[in-house]
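step 4 of 6: structure.
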Amino acid sequence: MDLNFTAEELAFRQDIRQWVAANLPEDISHKVRHALRLSRDDLQRWARILGQQGWLGWGWSKEFGGPGWNAIQKHLFEEECALACAPRVVPFGPVMVAPVIMAFGSPEQQRRFLPGIASGEVWWSQGYSEPGSGSDLASVKCRAERQGDKYIVNGQKTWTTLGQYGEWIFCLVRTSNEGKPQMGISFLLIDMKSPGITVRPIVLMDGEPEVNEVFFDNVEVPVENLVGEENKGWTYAKHLLAHERTNIADVNRAKRELERLKRIAKAEGVWDDQRFRDQIALLEVDVVALEMLVLRVLSAEKSGKQSLDIAGLLKIRGSEIQQRYTELMMLAAGPLTRPFIWEAMEAGWQGDLAFPAANLPLAGTYFNMRKTTIYGGSNEVQRNIVAQTVLGS
Amino acid sequence: MDFDFSDDQESLRDAVRRWVDKGFSFERRHAIAKAGGATREVYRELAELGLTGLAVAESRGGMGFGAIEAMVVCEELGRGLVNAPYAEAALMAPALMAAAPSVLQAAWLPRMAAGEALVVPALQERTARYRLNHVGVHAATAGEMWTLTGVKTLVPAGDEADAFIVPARLQGAPDDTRGIGLFLVDRGAVAVHGFPTHDGARAAELVLAVTPAMLIAREGWETMEAAVDVGLAAQCAEAVGLMDRLVAITVDYMNTRKQFGVPIASFQALRHRMADVKMQLELGRSMSYYASLKLGEPAPQRRRAISQARVQLGQSMRFVGQQCIQLHGGIGCTDECSASHYFKRLTMLEMTFGDTLHHLGEVSSRMQDTAGVFA
């Protein structure tokens, strides 16, 4: 047992740190540091910078043009990006659909789609949830009917994050009603410029149109856009969910935000209030414990010696902690977070307010983060999975 | 970074587990508790396994093992609900003796390592709560002779011990960290009043009245703080073993016990409770590793890490203990059910060397701008 990284790992970390410091645009990191609104251009610019370095697909093997890093190296890369206040990479392309195309797509699909994902040129969206299919994802109804060399897609997807920017979308569609619901699902790649697609933003409670409804009205999709076999899409989707398990805990961002919470608490004077400070201390313990949990999973992946049944815990704990630090930041600033001013999410905005506007986004962030215990398989569904493992029944 | 155990560490774990499985059944443990909690015979058996010399240097007749080996042993002792004062006598006492003059070490450590001498720390005073620096017992000197006067309480296995390591005040106010000396006091020299504890063991009150004592160190604060951190890390490990076994017992029960015609493990309200229990167990295990891995750090980092670990373990112990009783239903509240004994031990552990609120205060006052495992 050893808590320390190896000399090679530390050198690797140092290289990443220097590269990020030299290449992350300051206007972008400023927005991330203060939780301000990121534009499509901000996200795309950072994606392309990573893409040029060959690191947008930082989890990819060398075979597909990735860096071929091991679990620890991936973690260190994520940590350095997070601590430097880089935006989170929009995961739908490089983290979600790419591994499915690599594992189950045809060589032709790999040649066609992976370069655009790796470079950050093509914006991908995710078409999983439907109005009637949330936690019960296998009940998707959006239909794809085979007609000659095309599928005709009809139905609706929802909660499509940043779908307003999407150029391509990967969808779970129903191609059969026979057998168990899981059996009739296919994994389809759809060009969002296709006639018959309508994207309608959904404004969330923080006032931001972060997610969308996507409607499909007789959309024609060439059959060569089917990944793998027809009716096997559920298996591919599960493969996707099993990918990047530790990243979902987002412990690196939690460490950064805990530092920010302390700064806010000091500025607002609650740092010296023992009752408030103890709440921060509790969160600090939570963050350290989560980091240890993540490191245990990474170490087990690296050595392959022990099989751990704890990966399912990471999403639950990570999302709870994300909610907690946004809650405490809001409470630290208190009444000054009450004004709802849309422009306050823009960098440099002060308006004609006499008090500093820096705390204005805190309540919105708190509202926004309620999603974390709901998306990606609600925490209640995660508990079902954990219980299954522990109880063996 | 590596969280695998070495082959030697796994062998050590197996050895302790085999002894527990063969020689320390719940029935035996229950009988010891009912008879008043005397465990000197159990401690002798641990000595036969070589475990009492684990933390003593090889030059003093021990094995000179480190924090991870100690953690492995304590996890297994926890799993077996072993009620001997292992952490106190085999891990903390040698850590305190490290400050002693060579002559004293040579006289005591080999016997301690062999388990022939049971030496336990006597740290607790009536009004101290968890303040280690609150030392009212005072030391006086007449020429080369030292004597101690005052009362120590909750001394682990006090009426079975052969000697005590006693902090006593040489100078300063009751809460000063300076002026606390460490002394070795022979069992025969002191009035000892023993009593059973809720967790099936024994403790005692020591009444020192101009009692002769041997000086270990004139300034003992740093040694004491470090030794208590050794004890806290050991507790964390024991708690992990206790929780691990308690969860396994509870899982078995949930899969066997039927109500409404089905195993109670099929009810989602209970399944989710078990998922939460598993969460607390694994967060606890993670922080137990953290505590033992940080024991060798400089004092400020070590102190902060140990208290962070103890805050997590304190929460885990309480939650896992309470919920596993709840998941057992009525039977969990009985003396015959082993779960209740695991619960009682977990509860008493939390109130030794600082409870969760105490350690939260430590974390709170030691917070830095940055946080995390490597901060």
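step 5 of 6: annotate
 - Residues 124-232 of chain A form a domain with the Butyryl-CoA Dehydrogenase, subunit A; domain 2 fold (CATH 2.40.110.10).
 - The mean pLDDT of chain A is 94.
step 6 of 6: archive
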